[in-house]
Amino acid sequence: MIKKIFSVFLVTLLAQILSIFSISYIYNRNPDESFLNTIAILDSTFSIVTSVLAFGMLQITTRNIVTNKEWEKEVSETQNIRMSFAFYISILSLILYFFLEKPLFLYFTTSIFIANNVNYALYGLGKSLQASVSSSLRLIINALGLLLMGYFCVYNSLFYFILFSITILITSIYSNFLLKAKFQFKLINDFYKSYLITFKIGITDLAIVFLLDTGILFFADFFYEEHAITNAYIVLKIYLLIKGVQRLVFQTFYNELVNIKKVILLNKIIFIIGVVYFVATVLYTNEVASFIFGKISESALLNFKISGFSVIISSILLASIPRTLVIKNDKIYFNSFVLSLFFLLSSMIILSFTRYKDNGIFIALLIGEFVLFLSFFIGIWKDLKIRKYKKFYLMNFLLLVVYFLLNKYLETEFAILVSIVINVVYGFYFIFFNKKELMS
Fold it and tell me: Is pLDDT of 2 > 60?
């Protein structure tokens, strides 16, 4: 188990670090703010399109793949529906672009490439490492492209869009190669009927994109100025790296989420990651931000600190959330995400008209994460087996107290060093006392 987690983690981490480095490099080269805004909105559009094309179907298909030996037929039907929807989205986006001449509509032409990706099937089949490699490939190519553009000071939005589209095409082809299955495309005009069946789960997919991806920026672009979008996007890259690593912990063992003992262990691993991020961003905000980004604005620094609170709240029962789907408790899953999405979007709109507008996006994320946690906790508390966590959460609470004391009474550099040593020791302690479950 630990070998599998480490392999997936390493692949994803390297790709995300390269992506963050490329964004930070571009940011510090002081390009036109509109170019940075284009990168952010294009990334956000990708997330939105991916979610719209999934719209509940991929959640159900992935679940069915886990339990169905005839997975090829399942994937083939899903792909035809997705590709048909993507075809019409692309046609409509081209028409809107030529009439309205807004680049935003042109971004949606990538739909057909996004729909061709079959990473969800790889996860359902337990091939999480292959799926991670496929997903990471897109980030790596884009990051290398941005580094070259920054080096040669080529800040052309259209050029980057072309690069972005090509990487999506390459990774979609590669995912099909890894799956080793052949599908014959058939245009389905009544594709919408399939999406109506999974409407509730589809709404939750959109909520996930806003909470766990860059989708929030697409919506925020209508209410916030470019500098607020850029400052949010810079920090979102780190935030999503941590959230992505946490999600990989349970995605790697998606087909084992029916086992409550496995879920408890995964929740503990995820929470430890959350605590480390919380300490780094809340107690050592300036030091960590300077190390990662170089020089960034005060607004971005505050976003960085807020992100720490968001992560630790969402870390408490993250693996239990997808378990509700696996055990077919769709109602709680739907209600919790819809409620969270409502509070997220409402608070983001309201904050855009207040003096907190520079940090409104991340404050809204924090509100959304808290509502999501509270809703799920109330809905599935009987399934959580809370007694199994008592000693674990007590120990982590005491560790947080120690970290705060170190930060208050020791020199910053020495406090960081001692905190790292404590984290390493605690990590080995956790592995030793859970080695039987980790090795299974």
Answer: no
Task: Determine the Cα–Cα distance for residues 433 and 305; give it in Å rounded to an integer.
Answer: 32
Q: How far is CA 80 from CA 186, 284, 355, in A?
A: 6, 49, 48
This prediction has a pTM of 0.82
Q: Quick one: tokens of 231?
A: 């400052």
**Cα angle 261-381-258, degrees, rounded to a multiple of 5:** 35
DSSP-based three-state secondary structure for 356: coil
Question: Helices 2-28 and 33-54, interaxial angle, to 10°?
Answer: 150
CA–CA separation, 43 and 46 (whole Å): 5
- Predicted local distance difference test score (pLDDT) of residue 8: 67
The C-alpha atoms of residue 404 and residue 205 are separated, in whole angstroms, by 37
Enter the tokens of residue 223: 């209410």
Cβ contact 369:313 at 8 Å? yes
* Residue 410: exposure state from Cβ atoms within 10 A (0-12, 13-18, ≥19): middle
CB contact set of 420 (below 8 Å; sequence gap of 6+): none
Q: Do residues 142 and 17 make contact, with C-beta atoms less than 8 angstroms apart?
A: no
Closest CA to 306 of 238, 358, 363: 363
| Structure token digits, residue 269 | 């691993």
CB atoms within 10 A of CB 94: 14
User: Which tokens sit at 57?
Assistant: 């179907």
For residues 300 and 231, the answer to whether their CB atoms sit within 8 Å is yes
Task: Dump pLDDT digits (tens) for 281-320.
Answer: 999 988 888 888 877 888 889 999 999 999 999 888 777 7
Calpha distance 316→273 (Å, rounded)? 11
- Average pLDDT for residues 225-252, to the nearest whole number? 84
Token pair listed for 209: 């994109």
Contact yes or no for 202/85 (Cβ under 8 A) = no
Backbone torsions φ then ψ of 262, nearest 5 degrees = -65, -40
